[in-house]
């Protein structure tokens, strides 16, 4: 008999109904398949609309294969409706065969697994209409170079959510893309142009420069998408987007026009943050306020009518004195109350300016009197507006001084600061100059000091747009995780400022604005007018309609500014799906998005703006949940930077330790809204865990293939899967324990992911696999197989092992996709099909727990599960005694387990696991389990969690519960004299540490000057050392008694 594999695409609905080919023993069963007499391995394995069918080609002599003429006719008709295609191979199985006996080598498997996933179409959303689609729009990385650890975080978190929902059979749509990042990209392209050709962008011209920028985009996008694939991103690459794609550019243009026509966009002269290096305005959110060492300059503002009298002023920017238009004091400040309304003289300039009063003045800063320069300071600008003060701009756009500065014209602002201060010193106007920590506004992109300048820009009115965006959070239509950021979000929205959206750059989205050039008309005063339109022709039509009296040829000039990158990014969740065409299938199916996962540092940059624009342009929330992760920091909590030398390249980490190890190290330390402490040591731990998984899989498959026939354990596997209560009733306590723990694990992990506590989910799986499964059940399984010939229960162990391992791989897959897919394929290849499995783990069904069955199972097994917990406590206690008293690993010890009479059921359960208990605790074959109340009475210790051991008659007695007393014999197992010598040295060393710490903590100077954290650490360390000495003394006394007994023999 030969097993053949066919993929069949069902060409018509009629072909989906239980078609049987008796000739080949093939059964097509529609959506769900079951075991049949003809095909023992047939089950649902959906792949891109196809069905995998297992065929048994039987001998023609088999009476069941004889067809009647009518049956043969119907068969031929049905076969004509079936298109048979070539089987999709799993390309890495042969590679697995070669790697199986070696340590885990992720670099040899990850690329081939990912390519197989992608080419197989597993990342494309399924057509399951019974569930609401799960959609995430990937935050688009900037095309500025390599991805960093922050990108690795969001890729890992989003991929976990996507893989989980895909396995839950939701149609999952994760859309990747990249951002043009106008300021950052233009800066880098300019730098490249200068280094390679020695030219500026002005020298090569706008057209050539944009060609270079697009070449840069193509090169960087290819590299970024390769990195995203290497990180395991299971996104739908067929939907990949770039923020300056043609369709997205049309969406940006349409959004601008609609907002303008609704009265939200306007043009005006306002104070903006100007980047002299980049020669563009930048938003408030793109300015980083950095604390730096500087100076506070104190000088005299002399009164116009009394030159010998003055108001003392303190400033951090003396060069702006040249643009002062007032001196401002607090109206309640008694020092200057009488001076309000008088006039003072601006140094060097000689301009008379008034002393005014405003409650915005901080009376405690400097002298309490504030110089007002509305054209170069944001607070001064607001005060100036309230008091109707003039705006005097004293700087050019390159941060040099302009024509309003007299002899200082042309100087750089910093040079002007120095020279103006020297002049004021010579004039006797200087009071003092003292060191001061100042907050300096620096461009997030270029790093240079940003200068507040009055400039003609385009703005979005945000006050009205913010209202529905606030209501969405308040009503719960959109929730932010963690919830504490909702208050921060609402506070920012309530105090929102208009948004400057124009940038003086070449690379980016052009504003759909046309200006009227010089024309031979009677409307000379209208020559600077503009129109907002989708095309130049539409602009011409609007001009003619708006200005019907225009004469001659109309000439239009398109706005050369580009839009703020965050404007186009704000449209990302719906522009990706076809907006403004809301009739596209993608928009109808996948909008609003399910989740927006991003860093808390761009809550205002991006998230708030997406919500505002989403409601205004679509009438819907762009997403229902916002999940915020923190910033990746080093193990000491410091920000990663090249200066500190603590930057880790995720690609290098993946190359050295594997992608799965990096992902697990990130997610298990990532808690919503909290910064992520990261170190290579954590990656090493999870690389070791990956190697553990590799070894577990190898152990299970090698042993089962060598020992058993698949049909033997498969039936029991099915029973465990369908009804664990019935199937496990006759199995051992350990089997019941591990299945109970697995069921609880599945429920807990699913809940944690649903609640976005991905760290808890990841840690819970790791703990289960490493502790419950590997350290306990697999070790017990080994003892079961040792007994197999005597008791014949090894086949039950095989079924339970595969059942648990299959579940573990499914649960762990979203976190460690590569190794789990490899292990699962290897399991399927060697052990055959499993319930609810498909052609690939990435699309296999997530473990489901029927709650009624789970609860009844747990309740029924409660006593036996408790018995196994006692079993583990006993083994741990014996192991601890062995370690504490220096028993060699190879040395077996005599042990007795005493139980009270009331624990008869526990005694029965422990006897069932007698062999496992003996092997795991490394005891002699004479291990006894006794029901004996009298021995408890003899024990002088009362049960408590910190009970010390007792020594009697060569045994260490430890009471580990009110009904369990352990006795471990030490005679003949150790050399007491050697142990006494070892403990004496340990105690002497600890004594020195105790003396040092005690002396330090007795020192009043240390207690007064040391940080509280350091003092607490010293106190905790002292307490720890003292407890260690107490334990050593107790052990020393026991060893002393053993030594005396040995000498007496």
UniProtKB/TrEMBL annotation:
Catalyses which reaction(s): tRNA(Val) + L-valine + ATP = L-valyl-tRNA(Val) + AMP + diphosphate
The protein's enzyme class: ligase
One GO cellular component term noted in the UniProt record for this chain: cytosol
Keyword Glycosyltransferase carried by entry: no
GO molecular function: aminoacyl-tRNA deacylase activity; ATP binding; valine-tRNA ligase activity
Domain of life: Eukaryota
KW Nucleotide-binding (keyword) present: yes
Subcellular compartments: Cytoplasm
Major localization listed first in the record, in broad terms: cytoplasm
InterPro entries hit by this protein: aa-tRNA-synth_I_CS, aa-tRNA-synth_Ia, Anticodon_Ia_Val, M/V/L/I-tRNA-synth_anticd-bd, Rossmann-like_a/b/a_fold, tRNA-bd_arm, tRNAsynth_Ia_anticodon-bd, Val-tRNA_synth_C_sf
Domain Valyl-tRNA synthetase tRNA-binding arm positions: 977-1034
Coiled coil regions in record: 980-1035
GO biological process, one term: valyl-tRNA aminoacylation
Annotated ranges, domain Aminoacyl-tRNA synthetase class Ia: 113-678
Residues of the Methionyl/Valyl/Leucyl/Isoleucyl-tRNA synthetase anticodon-binding domain: 736-896
Keywords for the protein's UniProt record, in alphabetical order: Aminoacyl-tRNA synthetase, ATP-binding, Coiled coil, Cytoplasm, Ligase, Nucleotide-binding, Protein biosynthesis
Quaternary structure, from the entry: Monomer.
Family, similarity comment: Belongs to the class-I aminoacyl-tRNA synthetase family.
NCBIfam families (alphabetical): PRK05729.1, valS
Name of the protein described by the UniProt record: valine--tRNA ligase
Organism: Galdieria partita
Organism phylogeny: Eukaryota, Rhodophyta, Bangiophyceae, Galdieriales, Galdieriaceae
């Amino acid at each position: 008999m030969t097993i053949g594999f066919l993929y069949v695409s069902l060409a018509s609905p009629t072909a989906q109904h239980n078609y049987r080919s008796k000739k080949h023993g093939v059964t097509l069963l529609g959506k769900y398949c079951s075991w049949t007499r003809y095909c023992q391995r047939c089950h649902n394995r959906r792949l891109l609309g196809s069905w995998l069918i297992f065929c048994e080609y039987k001998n023609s002599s088999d009476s069941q294969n004889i067809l009647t003429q009518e049956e043969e006719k119907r068969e031929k008709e049905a076969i004509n409706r079936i298109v048979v295609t070539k089987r999709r191979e799993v390309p890495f199985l042969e590679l697995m065969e070669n790697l199986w006996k070696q340590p885990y080598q992720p670099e040899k498997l990850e690329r081939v697994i990912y390519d197989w996933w992608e080419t197989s179409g597993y990342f494309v959303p399924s057509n399951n209409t019974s569930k609401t689609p799960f959609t995430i729009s990937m935050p688009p990385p900037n095309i500025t170079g390599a991805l960093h650890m922050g990108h690795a975080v969001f890729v890992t978190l989003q991929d976990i959510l996507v893989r989980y929902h895909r396995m839950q059979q939701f149609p999952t749509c994760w859309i990747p893309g990249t951002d043009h990042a106008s300021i950052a990209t233009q800066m880098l392209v300019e730098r490249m142009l200068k280094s390679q050709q020695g030219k500026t962008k002005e020298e090569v011209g706008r057209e050539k420069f944009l060609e270079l920028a697009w070449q840069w985009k193509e090169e960087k996008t290819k590299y970024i998408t390769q990195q995203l694939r290497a990180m395991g991103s299971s996104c739908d690459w067929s939907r990949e987007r770039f923020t300056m794609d043609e369709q997205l550019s049309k969406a940006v243009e349409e959004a601008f026009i609609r907002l303008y026509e609704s009265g939200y966009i306007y043009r005006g002269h306002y104070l903006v943050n100007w980047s002299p290096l980049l020669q563009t305005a930048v938003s408030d959110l793109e300015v980083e306020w950095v604390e730096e060492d500087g100076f506070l300059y104190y000088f005299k503002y002399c009164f116009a009518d009394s030159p010998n009298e003055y108001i003392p002023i303190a400033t951090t920017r003396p060069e702006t004195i040249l643009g002062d238009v007032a001196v401002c004091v607090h109206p309640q400040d008694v020092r200057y109350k009488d001076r309000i309304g008088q006039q003072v003289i601006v140094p060097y300039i000689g301009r008379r300016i008034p002393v005014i009063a405003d409650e915005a003045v901080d009376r405690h800063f400097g002298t309490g009197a504030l110089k007002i320069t509305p054209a170069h300071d944001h607070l001064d600008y607001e005060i100036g507006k309230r008091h109707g003060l003039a705006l005097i701009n004293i700087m050019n756009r390159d941060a040099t001084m302009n024509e309003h500065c007299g002899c200082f014209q042309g100087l750089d602002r910093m040079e002007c600061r120095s020279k103006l201060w020297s002049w004021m010193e010579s004039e006797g106007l200087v009071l003092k100059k003292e060191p001061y920590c100042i907050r300096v506004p620096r461009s997030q992109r270029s790093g240079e000091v940003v200068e507040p300048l009055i400039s003609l820009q385009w703005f979005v009115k945000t006050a009205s747009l913010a209202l529905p965006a606030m209501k969405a959070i308040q009503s719960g239509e959109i929730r932010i995780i963690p919830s504490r950021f909702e208050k921060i979000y609402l506070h920012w929205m309530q105090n929102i400022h208009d948004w400057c959206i124009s940038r003086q750059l070449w690379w980016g989205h052009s504003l759909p604005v046309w200006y009227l050039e010089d024309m031979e008309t009677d409307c000379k005063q209208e020559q600077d007018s503009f129109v907002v339109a989708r095309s130049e022709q539409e602009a011409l039509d609007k001009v003619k309609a708006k200005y019907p009296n225009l004469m001659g040829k109309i000439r239009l000039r398109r706005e050369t500014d580009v839009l703020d990158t965050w404007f186009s990014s704000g449209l990302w969740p719906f522009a990706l799906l076809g907006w403004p065409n809301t009739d596209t299938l993608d928009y109808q199916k996948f909008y609003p998005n399910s989740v927006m996962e991003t860093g808390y540092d761009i809550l205002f940059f991006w998230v708030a703006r997406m919500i505002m624009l989403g409601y205004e342009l679509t009438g819907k929330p762009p997403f229902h949940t916002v999940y915020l992760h923190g910033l990746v920091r080093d193990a000491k909590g410091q920000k990663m930077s090249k200066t500190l030398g603590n930057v880790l390249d995720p690609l290098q980490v993946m190359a050295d330790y594997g992608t799965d190890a990096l992902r697990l190290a990130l997610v298990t330390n990532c808690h919503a809204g909290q910064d992520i402490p990261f170190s290579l040591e954590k990656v090493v731990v999870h690389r070791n865990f990956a190697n553990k998984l590799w070894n577990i899989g190898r152990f299970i498959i090698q042993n089962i293939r060598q020992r058993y026939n698949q049909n033997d354990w498969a039936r029991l596997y099915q029973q465990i899967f369908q009804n664990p209560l019935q199937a496990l009733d006759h199995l051992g306590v350990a089997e019941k324990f591990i299945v109970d723990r697995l069921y609880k694990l599945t429920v807990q992990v699913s809940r944690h992911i649903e609640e976005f506590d991905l760290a808890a989910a990841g840690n819970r799986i790791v703990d289960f696999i490493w502790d419950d499964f590997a350290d306990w059940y697999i070790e017990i399984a080994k003892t079961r197989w040792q007994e197999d010939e005597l008791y014949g229960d090894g086949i039950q162990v095989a079924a339970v092992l595969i059942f648990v391992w299959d579940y573990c791989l499914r649960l762990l897959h979203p976190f460690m996709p590569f190794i789990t897919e490899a292990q699962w394929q290897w399991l399927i290849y060697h052990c055959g099909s499993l319930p609810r499995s498909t052609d690939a783990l990435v699309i296999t069904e997530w473990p489901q727990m029927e709650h009624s069955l789970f609860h009844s199972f747990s309740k029924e097994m409660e006593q036996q599960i408790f018995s196994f917990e006692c079993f583990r406590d006993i083994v741990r206690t014996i192991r601890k005694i062995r370690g504490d008293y220096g028993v060699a690993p190879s040395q077996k010890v005599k042990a007795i387990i005493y139980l009270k009479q009331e624990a008869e059921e526990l005694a029965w359960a422990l006897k069932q696991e007698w062999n496992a208990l003996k092997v795991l605790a490394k005891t002699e074959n004479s291990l006894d389990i006794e029901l004996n109340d009298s021995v408890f009475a003899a024990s002088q210790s009362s049960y408590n969690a910190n009970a010390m051991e007792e020594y009697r008659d060569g045994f260490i007695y430890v009471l580990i519960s009110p009904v369990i007393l352990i006795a471990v014999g030490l005679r003949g197992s150790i050399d007491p004299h050697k142990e006494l010598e070892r403990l004496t040295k340990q105690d002497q060393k600890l004594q020195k540490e105790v003396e040092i710490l005690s002396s330090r903590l007795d020192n009043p100077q240390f207690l007064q000057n040391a940080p509280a954290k350091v003092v607490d650490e010293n106190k905790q360390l002292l307490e720890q050392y003292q407890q260690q000495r107490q334990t050593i003394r107790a052990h020393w006394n026991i060893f002393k008694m053993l030594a005396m007994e040995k000498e007496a023999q």
